[in-house]
Amino acid sequence: MSKKHQKCNFGFIKFFKLFSLGLISIFLFSPIVADALPELTGRIAYSVRGFNEVEGKFDYNLQMTTFTDGDYKSRSLNHPGYYAVWSPDDDILYFIQRVNTEAHIFSIDINNPRQKTQLTEIGGTYRFLSISPNGKKLAFNGYTTEQQQQENQIWIMDIASRQMEVVTAIPHFGRTFFFYGMSWGPFSKRLVFSLERPGGLEQLFLLDTETLEIDVLTEFNIDYYPVWTPDGNSILFRRWDREIDTMYSINVETRELIALYDVDKNAGMWTDWSANSRSIIYSLWGVFYLHDLDAGKTEKLFEVDGGIFGISWWKQEGGNLGNLPVEPKKKITTTWGDVKSSLR
Q1: pLDDT at 84
Q2: Which class in CATH covers the domain with range 3-342?
Q3: More exposed terminus of the chain, fewer Cβ within 10 Å: N or C?
């Protein structure tokens, strides 16, 4: 794996090693800050790196912030964990937590966060948790304790039955390929994911969760951390460049690219969409920002004491389920074998 990947992609502790440099980059690359907090509604969940007194080590601790009438309130959920995602239907929060030497998927009701439910029967190395818009399934990548690292694939779990199955069979050719983000699309039928391929490229792919066919979305670049808009039209992602990374959106059907804003290469950054697909909340180390697509304006929201890991913005009032576009007529026809041969 290349040095650029080691800096900003793989490994939770490595992700924040450049924290002091990132503090400087915030001042160099931060947008104009608003005088007042925008009138946001809803809530976000995220993890903050801090010291776990029980374990006696630094860990990722779950927090949530609720926005009401131009103000906000933040509180700790008192659980270590990361890759938090909201259920679109209720107050359930799903997340990944390490138990001893292995990871498991858990859920909590934020009205009674002390009690948590373990969803996975077998532990492993699991990352990039994402929930389907209908709230019925969880997608993630990884491998179980009974598998080797090279068997890293995408899994889908049925939340009601807690049954999980592998939905990809990506050939590893004797080496490990890493995923760098995934997100559900409309109708809970497609997933977008970023995958490292030979040559140091991270490309975006579309997975049809019914046929299990895979199509290439972007090629010959380093694209990662994709997040699908709730309206199903576009995908936000980060594109690596030699000098400065750039956040782009891509129209899923036309493949039109729109450059949104630049990001310092060493900045730890996470993003999510608002329910109406017109605003993006994102973090730079320990600071939250809001980017309004219509106004082309970015405002500072607030900051926390520590580095932010992951953001999930609750899609309230059916934001994930309503006003979706008509199911596209163009069906995915590319199989993984076709993709593999085209990348050689």
Answers
A1: 97
A2: mainly beta
A3: C
